[in-house]
Recover the amino acids of this structure.
DNA sequence: TTGCATCCTGACCGTATGGTCAGCTTTCAG
DNA sequence: CTGAAAGCTGACCATACGGTCAGGATGCAA
């Protein structure tokens, strides 16, 4: 009677449940932090009994780790925009767009990531020391090259990167504050567009990479 | 034997203990989040028995609220730089300096504030809807005036403010990430100076407010 | 059809945590 | 000096949480 779908195959069951749990966990971890999140709440949100969570993820830590790693993947993927670009205008524009889209579509993930880093990255320390460092060094080299080629002013690449991360991430992490200051309403399509435009204009102008 | 100071007066005792508790609480809340923080840990860090905490602060929520309100005060005070300035160069420079100094000297407080907002500002919602909104509207008006007076390009004042908040706050909230990418060492005096300089240069240039 | 691996779950457990309280010590006004 | 108010604290309690487990249900290969 309550069944609307055909009996599932094992593979599908596993995949769907894991997905539901990860989605619910992301939201709960984002809203309450690791310490404030409870397995019970995640289970309720995922529509599963609590014991079932432990069938898929042995411990709360393991579940949390999975959530954080997921975000990290998405976060790193936004990097591609940077690489294929031929100059700061293309590259930084695309990167800002990509990161703003993540902030908009994936605010919970962004918050979990922020929370993880704020608390000293207990789970991701090794990633930060390897993958993140490599990624950053690569991007720093690219920016340096752009500077040498006269495509932008000599700005410290690291602080520029931090600025990009901070500004774009802010729209997810501090979304509640922005919403409150926006009269309690989420940003509209137009406002998101304006946000992107403003950020891009200020930064690109700021580093002397404006077209005209 | 262990007494190095003369017996204290009641007033002093109260003041000192409250201060010690608030300091310890700020650190623990910053490191573990509200849910992950324990009264026991705060008590240990403050060097007091747990029951004593409850003598000064009835509940964990009340203690947390005090910590958050403290930060909010400091945060708002940085605003003054903005008001007394005669133009964007002075005002924004001073504001960036002030907020960066907060990020450097008060990273725990900044993290607690960030955490509070990220979790939907359960404690500070009323403040955000009154004080913060008023403050923001005031600053928006100032920026608008600067634009009308031709002292800077027509940038959306709100997104500019968000950019200032995000960029400066990032050095506290994501301090661990920055430290990791800095070879595991905290930023030196020189690096902090460079950070400020870079941010100021990019933003002031970006909004067309550079002196020359 | 059968046997088995996978999937599921209600009931349970040990522990850690926020909070309480009775009764002690210390300060200090009168 | 004295009594009351303020300050302090070890021991205690109820609860909520992460995690376990025995045993039932279900899909599926042979």
């Amino acid at each position: 009677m309550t069944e609307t779908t055909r009996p599932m195959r094992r593979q599908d069951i596993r995949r769907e449940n894991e997905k539901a749990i990860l989605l619910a966990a992301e939201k709960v971890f984002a809203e309450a932090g690791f310490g404030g999140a409870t397995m019970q709440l995640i289970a309720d949100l995922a529509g599963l009994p609590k014991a079932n969570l432990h069938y898929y993820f042995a411990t709360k830590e393991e579940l949390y780790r999975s959530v954080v790693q997921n975000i990290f993947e998405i976060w790193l993927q936004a990097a591609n925009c940077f690489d294929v670009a031929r100059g700061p205008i293309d590259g930084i524009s695309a990167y800002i767009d990509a990161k703003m889209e993540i902030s908009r579509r994936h605010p919970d993930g962004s918050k979990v990531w922020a929370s993880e880093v704020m608390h000293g990255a207990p789970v991701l320390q090794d990633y930060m020391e390897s993958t993140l460092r490599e990624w950053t060094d690569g991007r720093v080299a690219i920016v340096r090259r752009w500077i040498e080629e006269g495509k932008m002013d000599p700005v410290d690449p690291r602080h520029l990167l931090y600025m990009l991360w901070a500004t774009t991430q802010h729209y997810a992490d501090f979304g509640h504050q922005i919403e409150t200051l926006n009269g309690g309403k989420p940003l509209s399509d137009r406002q998101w567009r304006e946000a992107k435009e403003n950020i891009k204009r200020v930064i690109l102008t700021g580093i002397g990479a404006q077209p005209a």
